[in-house]
TrEMBL record:
Essential cofactor(s): pyridoxal 5'-phosphate
Keyword Lipid metabolism on entry: no
GO-annotated biological processes: isoleucine biosynthetic process; L-leucine biosynthetic process; L-valine biosynthetic process
Keywords assigned by UniProt, alphabetized: Amino-acid biosynthesis, Aminotransferase, Branched-chain amino acid biosynthesis, Pyridoxal phosphate, Transferase
Keyword Transferase recorded: yes
Record organism: Nocardioides cavernaquae
Name this polypeptide is given: Branched-chain-amino-acid aminotransferase
Amino acid sequence: MQISTTLSTTAVDDARLAEILAEPGFGTHFTDHMFTVEWTPEKGWHDARITPYGPITLDPATAVLHYAQETFEGMKAYRREDGSVWTFRPEANAARMARSSDRLALPVLPIEDFVAAVDALVKVDERWVPDAAGEKSLYLRPFMFASEKFLGVRPSQHVTFMVIASPAGAYFKGGLKPVSLWLTTEYTRAGRGGMGAAKTGGNYASSLVAQQEAYANGCDQVVFLDAQEGRYVEELGGMNMYFVYADGRVVTPETGTILEGITRASIIELAGKLGHPVEERRISIDEWRDGVASGDIVEIFACGTAAVVTPVGSLKWDGGETPAPTVEAGPLTSKIRAALVDVQFGRADDTFGWMHRVV
Ligand SMILES: *Cc1c(COP(=O)(O)O)cnc(C)c1O
């Protein structure tokens, strides 16, 4: 893939950039450039380019605005003490986007092109990667959408893939205190044969009303159960779940209708290395409730790229509540979080070969 570059003439100045990086928040500030490549059946992927960041013009009949044919990814670039910049398992994000795109009848962007696109943007906007202090990073958002102007219902014949980047601080403003969860019994996020395993905006759109219900009930996040029986824990709106048992076992819901997180997959390997075998299986809401009550479940946490590892506190539903197993992050939660973050920032040996150097 040949990438042309048009540099911004209105790049944010150093003083303003320092201000932004001191307090980046999440998803509000964007870098000076963006990456774009387009696809048509005749030409395949073509016209790859880095251009100044800015609005894109879409015809009101653009397919994605009507039928939501789109996929996205979330990943981060981390700066090390020595100034070098690295991404974490970018091929895994590329492979997942390929799977998501297959499900959404979008063309597959080859893994090496996905990685090259992300690398190109990180390189051109390298000054936007925050210093290692405070676990800040540059959040990267690759996304692909049906950009054909057509209202008929069929896979789009024009597709656009882009990457944008946004400096990120802590995802949850409260820091590492447990998030409280709302158990929705009315809404589900994924059924058999549906899009649950694809990273696509529609899954998020359908989760928002349940998230709203969570806020209305004083909870931070919503947890979804399986669509078939309404008994088994699936995941949060955008994070996978882990349960730690008193005997050291760790359980995470099995895949199928959940979105297979790269953080989730990495924790399976890390926990194993720390001597905690991980069981991927169904876990019912009764097992959760009874396990916390009996002291069998000693820690619960959620994980994903944006928030890394976050302890889970109480679980509330219409008519009841299960208390938090821990008041703070539990010992294994903290250990796993530290092990992961240390690899990402290059403070620990990358024994799994997860890191990819960009700068
Ligand atoms: C992205 C996402 C996750 C977490 O995946 P990571 O690769 O770990 O960031 C979990 N659940 C859903 C629904 C997601 O979209």
